[in-house]
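If you are new to this repository, start here. Below is one unmodified record pulled from the training split, so you can see the exact layout before writing a loader.
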Amino acid sequence: MDPQEPRITETLLSQKPRNHSFLVATLSLLAMLNLTMLAWRSGPEPFGGMAAVPERILVDGEYWRLWTSMAVHADISHFASNAVFIGFFGFLLYGYFGFWIYPVWCLLLGALTTYLSVLTYPPGAQLVGASGLVYLMAGFWLTMYVLVERRHSRGKRFLQAIGFAVLVFFPTSFHEQISYRTHAIGFGLGLVQAVAFFQIYKSRIRSAEVVEGPAERGPKVEGVEPEWAD
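And here is the target side for that same chain:
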């Protein structure tokens, strides 16, 4: 790189996440655990009547299942595998993009993910678990990383995002009880959500950048959060 060429040294994602990010992530996990345990203790209907069942949602109008099914898990290992990512991405999404992205829009689009998925299943199927939400959050975060983190070249950002997605989320084996279509729908909606968010707030996101070199701006004002923050 030409030493005289302007260079971006800071972006929105290089700043510290907002206060209470860890608390928000922790409360999310506790809420999910409480609903999961409630479903395990309830009966006689499987999953305490909280699972996403096509005919219950599409015919009977029990739309609350779109949300409760995300919190309910088949067993403790199922819960633990999703909890790690809900905590991780919840911390990041709230920390950098605020309350309206996480939890509000993520939960709304998570419900849409479940709805679109149950449209493809026959009567009697039961969907439970937060994996659709996890993939939605991952799709949003990885897309925003590619769009925002201009300290690195575009090619490097793409490779890092694709590498992370393949290593962490691409299945190494396939099981009938796992809804891979829900994962795909969630990831796709997260990507669309990120692109829309970036287009709406592009100027505010770019205003967080610090440039060194001939086109260097004035000093950054510490502690100023983007205007979309709650």
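Two things worth knowing about this chain: Confidence is low (pLDDT under 50) at residues 216-224. The longest strand covers residues 7-10.
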